Amino acid sequence: MRDISTNWQRGVFVTGTDTGIGKTLVSAILCRAWNATYWKPLQTGLADENGDTPTVRDLAGLDPSRVIPPAYAFQAPLAPLAAGDLENVTVNPGRLVLPQAQGPLVVEGAGGLMVPVREDMMIVDLIESLGLPVVLVTRSGLGTINHTLLSLEALRRRGISMTGVVPVGPLNSGNERDIARFGETQILFRVPWLDAITETSVSGLSRNVPLLDVLQQQISQ
Ligand SMILES: Nc1ncnc2c1ncn2[C@@H]1O[C@H](COP(=O)(O)OP(=O)(O)OP(=O)(O)O)[C@@H](O)[C@H]1O
Ligand SMILES: C[C@H](N)[C@H](N)CCCCCC(=O)O
Ligand SMILES: [Mg+2]
Q: Can you tell me where the transmembrane regions are (predicted)?
């Protein structure tokens, strides 16, 4: 029997095999393709950067009404649990519920799946509680098969629905083939390495994104 994420019709959760893997770029591409609303519930690292929310807003050309502010925003470039500890803040799971939104939601995680949010919660637990199907962003090159298959195994153990994988970087057809085969998943689209990440490049790449209702039909079958 297949497990179906409870909120499969509300949007997707964008996670990755690592931090810095390209989740924000892929989120911007998805928002542009689906005219979605973006939400990064747990932002860390604001001491060093502006955060992912303004980046996605600008790259996807989103109306401000299509951007939901983070539930928590911490200064330190660490996992949410550690960054919150430095500010004496404990994440309240009651604030990590799906917000009302126009159109589909694209929700971006922090780092990969096994990233602590609270003593009793990791990002993978947040995904399970939100009930959204996953888009898994991966590195395209050597080493990605192991990271990707481990991530898929962690998702499957919890009955979390997958839409597919988005490799970022130079095309590697062998890795894509092995991920699809051994991970029993599909490559949704791919993102090449870009000289410059701009609204124009995001708009161009958004044309390669499958329609959301096609992905949702696959999940609900
Ligand atoms: N295809 C690409 N071409 C060129 N640069 C890229 C590409 N993908 C990502 N980058 C760069 O790599 C860095 C990390 O990417 P990104 O911010 O999307 O990672 P992330 O997975 O969202 O990380 P976090 O866990 O912090 O949210 C950024 O500086 C981004 O500009
Ligand atoms: C600050 C950074 N850009 C991310 N927001 C947080 C990534 C936490 C990763 C934790 C880990 O897996 O070691
Ligand atoms: Mg990001």
A: none
pLDDT digits (tens, 9 = 90+) for 45-58: 999 989 999 999 99
Q: CATH number for the domain including 207?
A: 3.40.50.300
d(CA 212, ligand 1 centre) in Å = 23
Asked if residue 111 has its Cβ within 6 Å of ligand 2, the reply is: yes
Asked if pLDDT for residue 6 goes beyond 90, the answer is no
What global pTM score does this model have? 0.97
Catalytic residue among 32, 40, 147, 190: 40
Q: Is this prediction's ipTM beyond 0.95?
A: yes
Residue 126 located in a structural domain: yes
DSSP for the chain?
A: -----TTTTTEEEEEESSTTSSHHHHHHHHHHHHTPEEE-SEE--TTTS--HHHHHHHHHT--GGGEEPPSEE-SSSS-HHHHHHHTT----GGG-SPPP-SS-EEEE-SSSSS-EEETTEEHHHHHHHHT--EEEEEE-STTHHHHHHHHHHHHHHTT--EEEEEEESS--HHHHHHHHHHTT--B---B---SS--HHHHHHHHTTSPPHHHHHHHHH-
CB-ligand 1 contact for 198 (6 Å cutoff): no
**In the chain, how many domains are there?**
1
The model's confidence at residue 221, banded by pLDDT at 50, 70 and 90, is: low
